[in-house]
Design goal:
Chain lengths: ~55, ~425
């Protein structure tokens, strides 16, 4: 029987480590995890210009 | 499985005989070993220990069943060549469960069985060191493995073809007991007050095809789960569950440690009236540390009964002129419908801005509402975020939980 357990296990460990790293980054920057996944790690929700001034 | 132990001596030197029932010639594949042979022409079973090859049983039915691998077929298992010399079909009528057994012979290694049921194959060998008395035990240990009782029943021989080393007849019945430790299966049959045991091992269908060098006739796709079919979901889960538990613990540790380290510092508290379409500017305030979140909170002090309020605004960086926009609102409704009181919404709200750099800021807001009242706006630097921990838990659990559910369903089908 073809044993796919090691590959699936390795894939899971990689995913888990990525997730924990992302969570660590998110927590350290006070971000929501979803924002890390959506690629907003280096962006912000603001924009240039004093619109309300 | 193997029926009775050999008690009689087959006639030596006889390689073929004429069937007493139909006169057809029957060639023997294991001369000197077989005690009975079923005529391939009429299905009558002849006694090979008798000088006159007396008929033990006439064909119970027409020769309508075709073995998936014909009598005389050769297969290579464990590097040894085996010849199919016998084929029989057995049934447990209580469950209407029927399976096929192929008797294989090698002059140097004796007899083996190949069992087939609904597309599932097993390689079976008789053993003489099986468990002694198992009673109604749900578990039995054999050679360090725990075998779980799967089925008990009365197996009946429903069809016979070829040669056998015991005196098999259509209609022969035996109490059977199958215990499984996939891919292995211990099968016991009550004979003369004792148990005769055999040990089976699950074979993938393609392995059987390779052994015979050809696919079986009337090939069946696997139906359901084989009695001793390995549970691949369980094997996956066994590896992944420990990693899952460790990552869940790490998630808690990271989540708690980092939330505890979050500044969670209120840097501005600003009372406001609403509605007010004029931009109101707060006193300057400083955000310290690196790039962190900022939570703008709204708390209604008075009003907002069955109304809504919304504040639009920006955090304006006085040094870089960058603006960080937010919208924060609240709505609160209540009433009585059909005698039951209800409420909806709340008198508070918040908006979290991600990655706001350190610096000097001011907050600019305007508001809209369908009523008038007072609120307090707050700006909090570095609020803890617990939702990350729960989101991580959910994401980490998807695969292990799916595997556990699939494994459970697999075992349910095995027992079905």
């Amino acid at each position: 029987m073809k044993n796919t357990s090691p590959r699936l296990f390795i894939a899971y460990v990689v995913i888990a480590l990525s997730l924990l790293t992302s969570m660590g980054i998110a927590q350290s920057r006070g971000m929501r995890l979803i924002n890390v996944f959506s690629g907003s790690l280096s962006s912000h929700s603001g924009h240039d210009g004093p619109e309300h001034k | 499985m193997a029926g009775e132990q050999i008690r009689k001596t087959p006639m030596g030197g006889v390689k073929a005989f004429d069937c007493r029932n139909c006169g057809g010639q029957v060639q023997l594949l294991a001369p000197g070993q077989s005690l009975v042979a079923a005529c391939k022409h009429c299905g009558a079973v002849a006694d090979l220990t008798d000088d006159n090859f007396r008929i033990l049983s006439s064909a119970a039915e027409q020769l309508t069943r075709e073995p998936r691998y014909e009598i005389g077929s050769k297969a290579t298992f464990d590097g040894k060549t085996w010849v199919v010399i016998g084929f029989m079909s057995r049934i447990v009528r209580m469950y209407a469960f029927e399976w096929e057994e192929y008797l294989l012979f090698n002059p140097y290694h004796g007899f083996r069985f190949l069992a087939h049921a609904y597309g599932h194959w097993s390689w079976i060998q008789m053993i003489n060191d099986g468990p002694l008395a198992i009673g109604n035990a749900a578990w039995v240990q054999y050679k360090g493995q725990n075998f779980k009782l799967l089925t008990t029943g009365e197996a009946e021989v429903s069809y016979v073809l070829g040669e056998f080393y015991w005196q098999v007849r259509v209609g022969d019945r035996a109490q059977t007991r199958d215990l499984v430790a996939p891919p292995n299966m211990l099968s016991g049959e009550f004979e003369d007050g004792g148990m005769i045991w055999s040990l089976g091992q699950y074979l993938e269908p393609q392995f059987v095809e390779q052994a015979f060098g050809a696919p079986p006739k009337n090939k069946l796709s696997r139906k359901g789960v084989g009695a001793n079919q390995p549970n691949t979901w369980k094997n996956h889960a066994k590896r992944i569950v420990p990693a899952w538990i460790i990552s869940m613990i790490l998630t808690v540790v990271i989540g708690i440690a980092m939330n505890a380290a979050a500044p969670d510092q209120t840097v501005l508290t600003m009372p406001q009236t609403y509605p007010d379409t004029t931009d109101r500017v707060s006193p300057p305030f400083e955000l310290v540390g690196g790039s962190r979140n900022v939570n703008v909170g709204l708390e209604v002090v008075d009003g907002l009964d069955n109304h809504w309020v919304e504040f639009e605004g920006v955090l304006h960086n006085l040094e870089t002129n960058e603006n960080y926009e937010f919208v924060v609102g609240a709505e609160y409704y209540f009433g009585v419908t059909e005698g039951e009181s209800w409420t909806e919404g709340s008198k508070s709200g918040d908006f979290c801005l991600n990655e706001v750099p350190a610096g000097n800021y001011e907050m600019v807001t305007s508001s809209a509402s369908d009523s008038a009242g007072n609120v307090v706006l707050t700006v909090v630097r570095g609020v803890p975020i617990f939702s990350n921990m729960f989101i991580a838990w959910i994401l980490l659990s998807i695969l292990p939980v799916t595997l556990l559910i699939m494994s459970k369903n697999f075992e349910k089908q095995r027992n079905a």
